[in-house]
Design brief:
single chain; 185 residues; mainly alpha; elongated
């Protein structure tokens, strides 16, 4: 305590001397381009007096100790919960990684499909442009002797079973190949 009083007394004397110096230097004229800055010191705040310590009852202290104490079952429960949370987080990150890689794979396949479709359309258009149906008809009629069918040669028929024909036998004169249950009713 005595050291503290001596220290604060020394500080007060220093503050008085520096204020005297500052007032004297404020009246002096300083030559040159460098002006010394006055030394300012922050004010020291005195500590507030300490509050008296209240004595707590034995029951309050026991309750506080019990509140701070964790049982071994609670520690095990917290450890298991933390491990489960860690496992869930790791699985979530792995799932996100798989989703991202599959998304990139799908994007690459879609680009490949678009390229193949474009190439296929280009080849199809080139083939269609190279085929001239008038030229083929003229060549078939003149060189190969093709003639159009006469109306007596055309036989129309109803095929109720399917919408396409596979001819394994002759087509009957009446034009009906087969009867289905739908048409007979």
């Amino acid at each position: 305590m005595a050291a503290r009083q001596n220290y604060s007394a020394g500080r007060q004397q220093y503050a008085r001397r520096s204020s005297e110096r500052n007032s004297a230097s404020a009246q002096m004229y300083v030559y040159g381009n460098v002006v010394t800055k006055p030394a300012y010191e922050p004010r020291r705040h005195e500590k507030s007096p300490e509050r008296p310590v209240k004595r707590t009852s034995r029951q309050v202290r026991r309750n506080r100790r019990q509140a701070l104490h964790m049982s071994s079952a609670y520690v095990v429960f917290l450890t298991i919960a933390a491990l489960m949370a860690l496992i869930v987080c790791v699985n979530y990150v792995q799932l996100q990684s798989r989703i991202t890689s599959r998304s990139k794979n799908i994007t690459a396949m879609q680009e490949e499909l678009a390229d193949m479709k474009e190439e296929n359309n280009t080849k199809y258009n080139a083939i269609m442009d190279s085929v001239n149906l008038d030229e083929i008809r003229d060549k078939a009629q003149t060189d190969l002797g093709m003639v159009y069918a006469s109306p007596q040669q055309v036989v129309e028929y109803d095929n109720p079973a399917t919408d396409y024909v596979k001819q394994y036998e002759s087509i009957p004169e009446d034009g009906v190949l087969a009867q289905s249950d739908k048409n007979s009713k």
